[in-house]
Structure formats: C-alpha cells, structure tokens
TrEMBL record:
Organism: Labrys neptuniae
PROSITE patterns cross-referenced by the UniProt entry: HIS_KIN, RESPONSE_REGULATORY
One Pfam family named in its UniProt record: HATPase_c
Residue intervals of the Histidine kinase domain: 173-396
Limits of the Response regulatory domain: 28-142
Keyword hit for DNA-binding: no
Protein name: histidine kinase
E.C. number: 2.7.13.3
Amino acid sequence: MKDEDSELPADIIGASEVTAGEEAGTRCVLIVDDDVDFASSLAGLLSLEGYHTPIAHDPAAALDMLGRERIAVALVDVRLGLSDGVDLVRALRQRNPDLVCVMVTAYASIETAVEALKAGAYDYLSKPFYTEELLALLDRCFERIRLVEEKSRIAERLRQTQRLEAMGQLASGIAHDFNNILAVLYSNLRWLQERLDSQPELHELVADALDATRSGSELASRLLRFGARRMEETAVVALGRELPPLMRVLVRTLGDKVTVVLEVTEDIHPVEIPTGQLESSLLNLALNARDAMPEGGRLVFAARNLMVTAEDARVASGLLPGAYVLLSVTDTGKGMPLAVRRRALEPLFSTKPSGEGNGLGLAMVDAFVRQAGGRLGIVSTPGEGTTINLYLPRARLTAA
C-alpha cells in the first residue's frame, strides 16, 4: 500500500470546477455568415474539433442567438447581405462586452482591419484560410478568455480578502468589548453561586447562567481568532488521535438523524495548523451538512495522505508541490448549484433565511486552511451531496 496517494481530486484541478455543461458553454463558437453552404461547412469542421457551433445568417438571428446560447467566440463575416458585419460586432459587444469577436472577410485591407478593431473585434481572418489558421486563432481566443477569467478571479479574491479583513477587524473590536462585559457577568455569577449552596433551585439557575456566559466567551474567542491579522500559535496535530474524540462530540451535536462516519488511513501524516481552529472548522462544516440534510443522512469525515507533484501544482489552484493530508467532509444532502458553489467562500454569503445564518462559516474555514498553508476545494452536485476538501500541508519534520 502506498504511503501517499498521488491522485489529485477534481475539485482543485484548474482554477475552478468545470462540469460538462460549463465546458460546452465555454467552447461555443457562433458562426455568422449569409453563405449557407460556407457556414454549414465551417460548423461541421469545428464540430469535429469539439466546438459547439450555432449558426446565424443575419444580424437579427445572431443577436437572438446571443440571448439563448452561452457563446464565447463569434466568427462574423464582414458582408451579411445588405448588412454590415462591423456594425454587428459593435452590437454584439454592446450586448456582451466579454464576447470575443473575430471578423471574417474576403476583402482584407488595413482599413477593414482597423474598422473591425475599433468596433471591438479581437482579430480578423481573411478568406480563404487554412484549417490550421482558424484553429490557431480560436486557441488564441480561448486563451485570452482564460486569462481574462483568471484575472477576474484574482481581483475577486482580493476584494473578498479585503472584505474579510474589514469584517475581522470589526469582529475583533466587538468581541473584545463583549468579553469585558462577560467578565463582569461571570465574576458576579460566581460570587452568587458561592453564596447559594443552601438554595438548590437558585443555585441551578446561576449554574445555567454561568454555562451560557462560558459559551458566550467561547464565541467571543472565535471572533477574536477570526479577526487576527496574523497566524496565531500553531501546533503539530496527529489527526488519527484528534479526530475520534471530536467525532463523539459531533454525534451528540448533530442528533440521531445524521450518521457520522470517520475514515482515517494508517500512518496519516501530522499537520501543523493554527491552535484551536480545527475543532471549530469541522463543527462549522458539520452544521452546514446537517442543514443540507433536513431529513437526515450520512456524514463522512475522511483523511488520507496526498502527494502533489510539480505537474499537479502547475494546474492546481494555489497548491505547491509537496506532501499534504487531504481531510474531506462529505454529506448526502441537497448539494449546491453552480451559482451557489462559486460564491460559497464569500464572506457574508448565505442561502439561509435571514436570521438563520451569517454566511461566515465557510469563509472562516477557508481562512483557517489558508493560514495553515493549504487550500479548500468544493465538489457538489444538486441532489447528490457535497464534499468539502481541506488540503493541509504535512508538518515539517523539525516541527514534528
């Protein structure tokens, strides 16, 4: 049996998860040409190369197609009967600024090229052309789309980080003041408790109030940890030893409807993580899973060793080559639609009704994993459940 699994799960491959439907959408090329035979021939050629190729023969049909298909690239003929392809490019770009338009022309000239580029075309192709020219141009178009999307994701991640830092600073200030209030309550309640030994009914009420105060203090401590700008103290943790007692706590917390299962492989690597955050992170994930299974279900916690190679790191989202522990939390709940999955890590994003969730759970788990030097991945399909993967780097031998 291998000490480390080298298979990288699909959630972290590439910058984001891609399903078959999404892939079909991003490889969609609209062909706009009034020559029916040429358009049909070109569509057949590109279909053989794996492209989805809707066809339009006039500007009205092209604009209508843009509203019905997830088109990434448009090949537009410069002459469309009595209409002008350059004007259509301008109209298409106004409808969808992210659309990559290529002008196809049999009247190649500098003036035509300049006019097309001014209208928003990315490039132009002169008829007649070789198949290799067209495929190379489409490769450039989709590479441009990929780079633009990656830049957008990085910018969004930066905005999320800035919002999370602002939320953390606010949470820290509130938690600090709240702790001061709780300290007064706690000391007075203890004073009362010591003097009510002869009155059991009152003694029990004070004990309940003390328990609530301690719970409030723990909540404030979690908010303070959330607001910390730098990583706190770390500890080397053996998951094989730490997870079983935590599972017993989760069984009591989640109730009889949820079956909790723990699967940890032998010789699991130790991990170095921020002190005290593993329990709260897994509790967050467990409570989210319970909410996704209102009728009950199965919740599996699994941990195994994982080796990320240099080639894996080249295509993975933020992982460096090296040894990791993959800690997965899988439920049999409702699953997430694509739109929800894409926003799941945003601070304050929540699908729960107002007053039933603050949207900080997954954002806090993501912050914890990133502090540890790892990454969080999500695999989810509506109706088939969700898996949250925590990629935690193996602890350095010196630390262990």
